[in-house]
Design a protein that fits this description.
Length: about 280
């Protein structure tokens, strides 16, 4: 269903910018945003931009919608900016590639609700956990316009896997005996008290996944639980979850110049995208 050659091509195009796609380099961010928009347009006629200004610079979210006749919508998002001056293959070109491949899969489906695939900017520092995050801007728009949201899924680093012992770490040591010491799985992360959507989605994905899938629920205060765009949907009362390879708890290239395409497992990354797709169709 999802082809590794297509995934690799997307990764190469996203990483092929003259400067790192951080908040200072708006030309590189715009180059990637234009690429995302062009790819989305192959699969949907409903493509919109959400442009906003921060500190004198303009930034944009790119939104690709399917089955817009429905009022209730499911949001699937990922960010295309990076931290500092690094390639950001896993963080978070992998998530953006997930959106592009999902667009291809959704194009001929008759859906029970509207799906919006949203590519965000400004997830990374210096704007992380501020109102300048692209996901905050988008979530606030949904809230202000009283739009019914079925749930939100954040694709945050979905391409790094490791089969060696002790390659997986945890925010609490007590978790290792339950989850294992190998970084060979994808995780569905949610917080306590966030509605029924995350539980329903988790069950569908774990049951129909083509890759080893685990789930984790904890207070939002636990390190790593809220470290992506889903946190802004929580702020506005929407049910949201994160799909992740556990980021810094596994990937030693996190926020480093070594976060390159060559470090990713494209076969398993494809399986993550397929699993996300199957679960979405079943909820």
């Amino acid at each position: 269903m999802v082809d590794t050659n297509s995934v690799k091509t997307h990764l190469q195009n996203i990483l092929n910018t003259p400067t790192a796609r951080n908040y200072l380099n708006t030309a590189s961010l715009n180059q990637v945003a234009d690429y995302i928009k062009k790819e989305f347009a192959k699969y949907s006629a409903s493509i919109t931009k959400q442009v906003y200004e921060v500190d004198g610079r303009k930034y944009k979210n790119i939104i690709c919608s399917f089955d817009t006749i429905h009022f209730e919508r499911l949001i699937i998002g990922a960010h295309y900016d990076v931290c500092d001056n690094q390639p950001g293959a896993d963080d978070n070109a992998s998530g953006i590639v997930g959106l592009l491949e999902l667009a291809k899969l959704f194009q001929n489906q008759k859906l029970k609700y509207r799906i919006d695939l949203v590519a965000y900017t400004l997830e990374e520092p210096i704007y992380f956990k501020t109102e300048n995050m692209g996901s905050y801007v988008h979530a606030k728009y949904l809230y202000d316009n009283h739009i019914k949201v079925k749930g939100m899924i954040a694709l945050e680093m979905i391409g790094y896997f490791k089969d060696t012992k002790n390659s997986q770490h945890y925010p609490l040591k007590i978790l290792k005996p339950f989850y294992g010491n190998k970084g060979d799985f994808i995780t569905v992360v949610q917080k306590f008290g966030n509605g029924s959507f995350p539980n329903k989605y988790k069950r569908k994905m774990k049951h129909h996944a083509t890759i080893k899938t685990k789930s984790f629920k904890a207070p939002a205060s636990l390190p790593g639980i809220s470290w992506s765009d889903h946190l802004n949907y929580w702020k506005f009362g929407f049910s949201a979850l994160m799909i992740t390879d556990t980021s810094y708890l596994r990937n030693e290239n996190y926020h480093q110049k070594t976060d390159t395409i060559e470090t990713l497992d494209l076969v398993r990354m494809c399986k993550v995208i397929e699993s996300v797709y199957k679960a979405v169709l079943l909820i």
